[in-house]
Amino acid sequence: MSSQRVITTVDSHTAGHPTRVITGGLPPLKGRTAAEKCDWFEANCDELRTFLLHEPRGHSAMVGAVVTDSAVADYGAFFLGSYNYLPMCGHATIGLAATLDHLGLIGPDEQGKAAFTLEVPAGIVTVAMRYQDGLLASVSFQNVPAFVVAWGVPVAALAGRGACDIVWGGNWYALVDAADAGIDLSPAGVQQAMAAGSAIKAEINARITAGNIAGASHPVHSVLFYRTTREEGVLVSRQLVVLAPNKFDRSPCGTGTSARLAQLLDAGALAPGERIRAQNILDVEFSASALPEAASGPSGESCWRPLIEGLAHITGLHTFIRTKNDPLPLGFLCR
Ligand code: PYC
């Protein structure tokens, strides 16, 4: 037997962005909560993250999800990125729901509906699934509360032409108007967006770490470029999330959309419960809205409870193998 490691996954894409749900081959995970299990995995199994997500089995934008049991919800889950672990991931939550459906672990009731609660490191999210003619037709999730911590932060990388708002939506975001950064929100603009987004992220995080941005105390995970229009009265937020110099979210981004909702609602550009179309650069959309949340943020910020709706499609079932003499046992990424 020359295999040193065998891992099975169910892969899906949500509006173009991949989710690789690990279904077999992991050791028993230690920890009481999803956050503790994620920390234990990072301390003890991080090589499996790079083995599964990096080349040659994955790529810089691959996202993984580990499903666990939970003491407080129907399931627990944590999310693996190619560079880090994410407190919450919206597109992967939709992918995970589609995977549970594919595996027959969840299915429609007589009304064509299914639902489950999910404990993630950021909190508890509620997932609802709708079926049409027996097929999964939509997945929506009520995210953890979203809130803005800093407005109009000047960005030197934008050569004095723009600013960002810093917002929690399950991950931390710097939200930047794409026009200020001269970003074309289309596949042709991706290289420029990744260069600009990673420069903005580095600048903002250096200033947050130095304590120089009032209200912001956590480094941002990503920079979200947006353009706002209205079509037939509905607000359309076209958006592109940059996570790293070689990594952008192909989907409209569930946590990024949550952050965007909090920004729009706080600014009075959207009414509570009003639906927006969150659109990616491939013209695939999430439908999203948010309602006021009773709890407030850590410094008394007003909070919003986002509801994001999309769909994921299964792309494959995989058995990944690492042989004993593989010269690249951890995989690799070229930045
Ligand atoms: O959908 O929340 C999301 C997400 C985060 C990183 C990639 N996708």
What does this structure look like?
By secondary structure, the protein is of the alpha+beta class. The chain has 2 domains: 3-141 and 314-323, Diaminopimelate Epimerase, Chain A, domain 1 (Roll), CATH 3.10.310.10; 147-311, Diaminopimelate Epimerase, Chain A, domain 1 (Roll), CATH 3.10.310.10. The protein is 21% helix and 42% strand. It is built from 5 helices and 18 strands. It has helices spanning 34-53, 90-102, 178-181, 190-209, 254-266; strands spanning 3-14, 17-24, 64-68, 75-80, 85-86, 113-120, 123-132, 135-142, 147-154, 163-168, 172-177, 222-231, 234-244, 247-249, 276-279, 285-296, 302-310, 312-323. The protein has an 18-stranded mixed β-sheet that branches. A hairpin with a 2-residue loop joins strand 12 (222-231) and strand 13 (234-244). It is globular, with a radius of gyration of 19 Å. The structure holds pyrrole-2-carboxylate. Pyrrole-2-carboxylate (PYC) binds at residues 17, 63, 86, 89-91, 171, 249, 251, 253-255.
In N-to-C order, the SSE pattern is EEHEEEHEEEEEEHHEEEHEEEE
> How large is the radius of gyration?
19 Å
Structural class: alpha+beta
Strand-residue proportion = 35-45%
Helix content: 10-25%
CATH topology of the largest domain: Diaminopimelate Epimerase, Chain A, domain 1
Per CATH, the architecture of the largest domain is Roll
Compute the average pLDDT: 96
CATH class of the largest domain: Alpha Beta
Inertia-based shape: globular
Q: What is the distance, rounded to the nearest whole angstrom, between the alpha carbons of the first and last residues?
A: 34 Å
Number of domains: 2
Uncertain regions spanning at least 5 consecutive residues: none
Q: Describe the main β-sheet briefly.
A: 18 strands, mixed
Number of strands: 18
